[in-house]
Design goal:
20 strands
Amino acid sequence: MTTASSHRRQANAIRALAMDAIQKAKSGHPGAPMGMADMAEVLWTDFLSHNPANPDWANRDRFVLSNGHGSMLMYSLLHLTGYGLSIDEIKNFRQLGSQTPGHPEYGYTKGVETTTGPLGQGFANAVGMALAEKLLAARFNKPGLNIVDHNTYVFVGDGCLMEGISHEVASLAGTLKLGKLICLYDDNGISIDGKIDGWFSDDTPARFRAYDWHVIDNVDGHDADAVARALTEAKANVDQPTMICCKTEIGFGSPAKAGTSASHGAPLGEDEIIATRKQLDWPYEAFEVPEDVYEGWNCTDKGSVAEANWQQTFSQYVDSFPSEAKEFERSMSGGLPDNWSATMDALLLDSQAAGESLASRQASAKVIQTLAELLPEMVGGSADLTGSNLTSWPGMKPVDASSNEGNYIYYGVREFGMTAIANGIALHGGLIPFTGTFLIFMEYARNAVRMSALMGIRNIHVYTHDSIGQGEDGPTHQPVEQVANLRGTPNMSVWRPCDGPETVAAWRHAIERQTAPSALVYSRQGLPHQDRTAEQVQNISKGAYVLKDTDSDPDIILIATGSEVAIAVEAHGLLAAEGIAARVVSMPNANIFEQQDDAYQESVLPKAQRKRVAIEAAHPDYWRKWVGLDGAVVGLNTFGESGPGGAVMAHFGFTAENIVKVARGLK
């Protein structure tokens, strides 16, 4: 039986490792891991179902440290429980190339489920993970054979709950009754600026009860038995998410700095560490953990047993439901069905042959319908703009509070929460999320979009109403700088198609891009279909290609994307009538074009031809890299205007006649 004193001794190992690593790094946040150590010790040794020998076990419980500045809590837990994170890596905290970066980073350290640091987003990711568990359980579980059956635990701090995203995602989690989501709130009353009662006086338990959460308040976060009782109660309620409000002391054990902001974001100092060791009765050298403490922490044996028990269940599942088992394994691995390539090849050719002139958002809706039939793991959604984004499809099943299988999430007006939840769905595995909103409202979600790129996860961001061409809603709803912002995000693949075939190519690439996100940017207004040869159709996938050419070397090159491709094609005809040989390059994805070999890039944009005009109804600066100092950009360096879309486009110079005028002016 584990006694209170042994619980505390094991928790003190976290405190010691945290303060030692942070002191050695001369940087970090010791207060949070020291304050949350008792909560973490109970959870990780007595409740969390995980296997350190296989951090990717499909049915493991997920753990998220939303207050990621307390990263030494995470690293101490991984080191102590047997994940192979060595003491040398603990000593190397916050150093270049280490497995212990300043904030937990997905992909750097085994056992870290998501990158956290921007407060509140880890909480949102945890909501997504719990939602993924619910959807996969509904799809795959059979009577007596629950192969998807795990909890998601998340630690949050005061800062996480101050961030507005916490409201967005907690509200939705309560509405959807995510009963396997358990949140432990580190209620220490301190942030960087000091005691929070001057700027954060919310009644947090009442707030979460209003979201229809199960709330367990006034838990002593330093009492192992109290934390265990709360976790037991939380697990018993599978009809509501649970918020456990744990009263803690930041920097617990530090005689001079506990309970103050002095322990929040700076090392304790050598003298204070000596005093803290004495206070905690921890008579060991820096980075020294006694063997009996390691033994108390080690979770490898019971983790292996937990996975073995699950494997036994899964073996029975394979015998009874072989096709479902194969689908489960395929979905969890992120692989695509055997008929994927053939289906998408045919869809591309069919789209070209159909020759439909549609808004690219309408073309996207047609692709989504095919994808939904082909990929049951695809989960769509929109931030209250389904009918505008056209992100739903016939036969889609809304996700609701029941246990029924669903594949479409009505997120409500929660762009930031939606995107971060979808990040969590992608991180969980087994599902391919895509979400929709207007391009301008990407701004609400911007940091979550960036996090998807930073983590390298397959989250597909669908943005419609992509320019001033959307018209009457005016400059509040007309994007200008947003596409350039997305293109400037490392690891983000940005598509702005001009018609149906380019839209098919965009979706295909986004689905096949398993380790990075994509932004699919679509028009509100109708776009004319473009004629292509078979070679041109295949070259769409290269990001840019020659759409219209001349029999001789071109006198000028017009580069365009999206709705402006049709304007460039019209200008091509006008220039030809004047005896000017022009080439039109459609560049739906500049990121991909940059990855092509030099020979292909030269065949599309020969270096010798410096007379170039880029045309895009967006901020012009991005296009300078493609047209150079000798070229020109027809873009938008001001905000738009309210009016019919065509009139607004013409007002700002997006006409074939103006393109010809600009082209003539190049020397």
